[in-house]
Write a structure and sequence with these properties.
The complex is a heterodimer of chains A (116) and B (115). Chain A is built from no helices and 12 strands. With 116 residues, chain A is mostly beta strands. In chain A, a hairpin with a 6-residue loop joins strand 5 and strand 6. Helix content of chain B is 0%, strand content 49%. In chain B, the strands form 2 sheets. In chain B, strands 2, 4, 5, 6, 9, 10 and 11 form a 7-stranded mixed beta sheet that branches. Chain B has a 4-stranded antiparallel beta sheet with strand order 1-3-8-7, with no helix packed on it. Classes of the chains: A mainly beta (116), B mainly beta (115).
Amino acid sequence: AQKITQTQPGMFVQEKEAVTLDCTYDTSDQSYGLFWYKQPSSGEMIFLIYQGSYDEQNATEGRYSLNFQKARKSANLVISASQLGDSAMYFCAMREAYNQGGKLIFGQGTELSVKP
Amino acid sequence: DGGITQSPKYLFRKEGQNVTLSCEQNLNHDAMYWYRQDPGQGLRLIYYSQIVNDFQKGDIAEGYSVSREKKESFPLTVTSAQKNPTAFYLCASRGTGGIGNQPQHFGDGTRLSIL
């Protein structure tokens, strides 16, 4: 069965430094998509970045980039130049291309705290 | 602005009572989803709908019911059969065109507690 694992319950980073949040996944499908979401303390889920399994280049969106290592089944989120507003929960999620309804499977999340 | 509106923001349920959480979207999305989030946990899928008048159970559908009579609306009812309803409930929608990279867009959530 497909599964997402985020092994870091909590992370600390100094403001303006880069941080990597880990995500590994398990699937037998060749075609799938990986998503990262940010959840501030207010609760809403904010989409950050997407990586398709056939994408040859790592995805980037502003200060967010995805370190995609397909053979290792990992899709780590890299946040560069951390800001205080980056403090939040971060969730990795996967959607298999042929699953019915486009369902997402979420990891347990990593709580990131940015120190001034 | 286009988006997803969930109401109410906070909801309290008495024992034996059914309550309904509202979810409305004006993004013209075909697919809609309901998730449950417990403290310190990821999201778990309750129900989803790909089209009007059709919906499917997710991983934790027991004690919940939904309807999809309009494209814009996907209300979730937490029935008295759900013995542990205290959680944060998130509604999402997604467009179904294109190559499959469309993300799900989420509402601001409803916090449900038992009185």
